[in-house]
């Protein structure tokens, strides 16, 4: 049974020898690694597509809510127009145009008007006489007097016309201060119309002209800013051409100005209302509707209702709708883009093209635009999936690592088992061989003696000595094996007692010298005369030193001397056994202390041995709480040093 096991293990060991061993590890790890890798990849893919699906569902639901809120908001706008409102709703502009009036709420929300009610202005003849002095007779002084008189007229519109003309003549005659006073007075007439324009506007404009003429640039800039602000805040209702002309003029005086968002918004609302006005006048627009218009590149949302007497319109930007979206909880997590029928952007920014987004066309929703909704932060949306992916990959890597480690350690363990099996079988062979030689000798000599084939007494004596030596060798072998068995099994009972190491070593050396003297071997001992006390099992320690001496002689076939040195080294006692033998390569310095291990030197198999000598030595030294060291180089000899703790003197 054991033989079969040994054969199989032998075959397996040979089969598993490197590099096949590596291939086996590779195969055992690779197959589950590929399977595990594939499964992990599938898992990651599935997880990612699930995360995408969830994000898409979330977008769908936000999109539906946005559509619902927008529809509700639009119908609110419509029903508000239908209810003939008097007040605008927040963020909307209410315009009510009747036969002779256009009412804008909040006032000034439109930068210009499509029409203006005609204001009663004085007939041109009122100023005919005074203008005769100015233009025909070229007598500005007289003209000034005439206009001054008219400037005290009870009618505000006559006063306004007179003051404007008075200022002009004063300017012509270089009386700039007086001209300025005339314009100040004109300004106080506020919205009284002169030539279709409010008196205050004309006064401000004239003041600017005056300051320009006087070269007072900083004052001009200040005055022009006031003028500009009045215009852009909608202080005066103006027609488009007048608004544009005067605002350009003001900007020129200011030395340039970039139109603000608010100004552009007012222009867009004014443009949208102008369009609605024209449509309603031409009867081209339905009596009630809502529409999104793009005016000067800005979208305006219009809801209106009209009859021949009255046009009610609510105007607003798309922010009106957007504001309603903000009530939706998930709104911050999405990005919304509104485009009109032509595909131009009404509001928002396009979601990242590569990331998933959902579309709601105006056909689907009944809204005047197409909605495109994507995630505001697609990377963050997939962050959870990315974290899980890292987890999967980490788990996979760990499993693979564990698998590789398990495979490696299993194979190493198998390898070790096989090596032990090999060592054991080598050991059995070596022991058998060790027994066979002395046994054969004993049998041969005892047979010769029995059969009286040894003629002389001297030869017989030699035979007896030989028998004795071989018997001793056998006994030593058997004792070694028995001791090894006991020591290995932990059954050996050490008897520690204080010992003089010098005495002990001298004793062992003397006995050993006696044994090897016939072979011409000399043991040189160097020991200090003083007593070196250790706590030791004399017999066990003696056996250890004997084994080391035996090895030193055995493995020094070409040298007749071995050296023993006993020395105190700080707290330790060093017993050094040195030879000039075959030596041991460095890679085997550790291995040789393992049981059954014999050196790889080609000379070793020629030398008798079982590979248990040093294992016994190490056991004994360790039991004495000591250490054993080897220094050796091939062909240069070896030194084994046993270090034992010294006993402290009591
Ligand atoms: P054995 O001597 O029976 O083979 P040991 O355990 O005593 O077993 O020694 C193990 C191995 O260590 C030996 O086979 C030999 O290769 C090596 N060895 C031990 N002592 C020496 C030495 N003094 N010089 C060279 N090699 C040695």
Short description:
The protein is an alpha+beta fold.
Give the termini distance in whole angstroms.
58 Å
CATH T-level topology of the domain at 493-645: Heat Shock Protein 90
Percent helix: 40-55%
**What top-tier CATH class of the domain at 493-645 fits best?**
Alpha Beta
Residue stretches low in confidence (pLDDT < 50, at least 5 long) are none
CATH superfamily of the domain at 493-645: Histidine kinase-like ATPase, C-terminal domain
Summed over residues and divided by their number, the pLDDT gives a mean of 86
Strand order of the largest sheet: 2-1-7-6-5
Rough shape? rod-shaped
**Radius of gyration of CA atoms, rounded to a whole number:** 59 Å
Number of E-state strands: 18
**Reported CATH architecture of the domain at 493-645:** 2-Layer Sandwich
* Number of distinct helices: 18
* Beta fraction: 15-25%
Summarize the structure in words.
- The radius of gyration is 59 Å and the shape is rod-shaped.
- 54% of the residues lie in helices and 16% in strands.
- The strands form five sheets. The chain has a five-stranded antiparallel sheet. A five-stranded mixed sheet has the order 13-15-16-18-17, covered by helices on one side. Strands 9-8-11-10 form a four-stranded antiparallel sheet.
- Strand 15 and strand 16 (572-578) form a beta hairpin.
- By secondary structure, it is of the alpha+beta class.
- It has 18 helices and 18 strands.
- Among the domains are: 123-236, Alpha Horseshoe (Serine Threonine Protein Phosphatase 5, Tetratricopeptide repeat); 493-645, 2-Layer Sandwich (Heat Shock Protein 90), CATH 3.30.565.10.
- The longest helix has 68 residues, at 383-450.
- The model has no long low-confidence stretch (mean pLDDT 86).
- Helix 3 packs antiparallel against helix 4.
